[in-house]
Every structure is written in C-alpha cells, then in structure tokens.
Design goal:
Helix content: over 70%
Shape: globular
Number of strands: 0
Number of helices: 13
Order of helices and strands: HHHHHHHHHHHHH
Length: 332
C-alpha cells in the first residue's frame, strides 16, 4: 500500500470527525439557546409575516454585491503577482467558494477550491496563489477592524454594560487584535533595504516553497499599491455588510438606535464565520440574542433576525452554486 492510499482514509476520518464536532457544537449551542429562552412562536410568526420584503431584498442584493466585490479584490492581488485573470472568473470562483464554505466544508476548503482552480490557470504558482488568499483575508480583517474603531467608541459603554456582550466584544477584538499584531510583527522585523524580502520570512522553515513564498510576499512588500487597493475594496465590502445587516433590522420593522445596530453587525459576522459550527448555527443565534438584550427583552426578534441572516447566506450560496456550475462548463 503506497503512502497516498494510506492518507486518503486518514483524511476522510479527519473530515468526518470535524463534521461531527461541528454538529455537536451547533446542537449544544441551539439547545442552550432554546432552553434558556421562552420562545413565543406566534410572536415569531407575526414578526416574519409582517416582513418588509423590499428591505429584505435590498439586504440580499447588497450581500451578493459584497461577495462579488470579494472576487474583484482577489483579482487585484493576483494581478500584482503577474497572474492575470478576468474579473468574471475571479468573481464566479469566489462566489463558488462561498457555496462550498456555506455548506460547511469551511473557509479553508473553500480557499483550497480557489487555489486548485487557479493553479490550473497558472501552473506552478500554487504558493503565490495561497499568499494572495492570505493577504485577501488579512485585508478583510484589517478593514473590519477599521470599521469597528469607527463605530465602537460611541457604543462602548452599552456593549460592556452586560457581561455577555462584553465577552462577545472581547472575543472579536482578540481576533482582530491578533491579526493587527501579526502585521506589526512583520513591520518590526522588516529589513532596512525596502527592495528585499522581510527578514522574518528568511527564518521560516519553508524548505522548497521558501523561495516562492518570499518572492510572493516581497512583491506586496516592495509594491504595496495592490494591497492598499485591496484594503480600500475591503472597506467598501465591510460597509456594505453593515448596511445589509441594518436592512435586515429594518425589514423586521424593529425600533433600535442605528449606531448600536451597526455595531452589532461586525460582531455577529465575525463569530458566525468561525469554522466551529455548521453554517454558523447556534453561535449566530446565541450571539444575536445576547446583543439584542439592549434592544428588546423578548427573544423572538433575535431569532427572526438570525433566520433572515441565515436565509441571506443560503441565497448567496445558491448564487455561488450557479457560478460553480457555469465554471465547470466553461474554460477559464
């Protein structure tokens, strides 16, 4: 039996265990959510029956637009490393990755799909393609951090007034802070010559991939215009994400302080994107419920918001499925 045939069962077992763990966490969180809240199902039905459809459709359209902008951002990063590709291909591939991520293969598997497909277009550039995806993620998190810094100060006292919302805020800020510290670490260990690869890269045990990785990061390091442009696109994406969330609020005809509502969207998006549950189930509902305690004492609006948020994610995934099918039947 060769090494490859031995690895396949191990990978399948690891995937199955990961799925079981995600299902367990989702079920556990949902059980806790429903057991600690007395849901008035008639009230929930009434909320959803009075849905402002035009606002919900606008929230959905904004969501699909920001997903497409993610494809444009990736195209900018690829072009900076001399990997030309059309906007249409990048957008369709990014939306297809959203489909695979939503159905719980997770963001890493989705990025693996993008890496595999782009490697067919640019053979031998796998390491560079992975770097574009890493920079893509970092730009998104940095932009999210900027949005949070713009919104959170005015809502700080409200967010920390309850232990549960303070804990949510702490977790999200830890995630964003960790990313910013990584960037700061890179800057501190940058060599004096701006035309060379950052010094810390040279000490990584990268073996044969080291040269490709250093060249890819060096390209962004010496010519940061692409990264800056990607960051600007990310700011637009994160702003549209907040706006989409607000339109979900308005579709339910909820009365709430707009700035507080806007401050909850980044918190919800970060936590539901964590690859520890199935489609964010459980973690989204509990997060929204705790954040909504500052808006209403009833749990039904939080559950209605969560259901609509999930529906928009599924609609975005459906668009991604269509993009995947068109990719499979066309040659990039």
């Amino acid at each position: 039996m060769n090494v490859q045939s031995q690895l396949v069962p191990q990978q399948a077992l690891r995937t199955a265990l990961t799925w079981l763990l995600k299902i367990f966490i989702s079920v556990l969180l949902l059980a806790w959510f429903f057991s600690t809240r007395n849901i008035d199902w008639q009230n929930l039905k009434s909320l959803l029956s009075q849905l402002h459809v035009s606002h919900f459709l606008l929230a959905t359209i904004l969501w699909v637009i920001l997903l497409a902008l993610g494809g444009w951002r990736w195209k900018v990063l690829l072009s900076a490393l001399n990997m030309p590709v059309t906007n249409a291909t990048c957008i369709r591939l990014t939306l297809a990755a959203v489909f695979f991520s939503t159905i719980s293969f997770g963001p890493l598997a989705a990025d693996g799909l993008r890496t595999w497909w782009m490697s067919r277009i640019h053979p031998g550039r796998t390491t560079a393609i992975i770097i574009t995806l890493v920079v893509d993620r970092i730009c998104g998190l940095v932009a999210l951090g900027i949005i949070c810094l713009a919104i959170f100060p005015s809502q700080w006292s409200t967010l920390i007034s309850k232990p549960s919302t303070a804990a949510i805020l702490g977790i999200v800020l830890s995630i964003l802070g960790g990313t910013l510290l990584l960037l700061l670490f890179s800057l501190l260990f940058r060599e004096s010559n701006p035309d060379t690869t950052p010094g810390w890269i040279q000490h990584l045990p990268l073996q044969k991939q080291r040269k490709d990785l250093a060249a890819a990061i060096g390209a962004y390091w010496c010519k940061p215009q692409a990264a800056v442009q990607a960051l600007m696109i990310s700011l637009i994406i994160q702003s549209l994400s907040v706006l989409s969330g607000l339109f979900i609020f308005w579709s339910l005809r909820l009365e709430f302080p707009i700035l507080y509502g806007a401050s909850t969207i980044p918190l919800i998006n970060v936590l539901q994107a964590l690859p520890i549950t199935i489609m964010g189930l459980g973690i989204r509902e509990t997060t929204v419920a705790e954040l909504f305690r500052h808006i209403t004492q009833f749990p039904e609006p939080a559950l209605a918001f969560s259901l609509l948020n999930l529906l928009i994610n599924l609609l975005g995934a459906f668009v991604g499925l269509i993009c995947w099918l068109t990719l499979k039947t066309s040659k990039s």
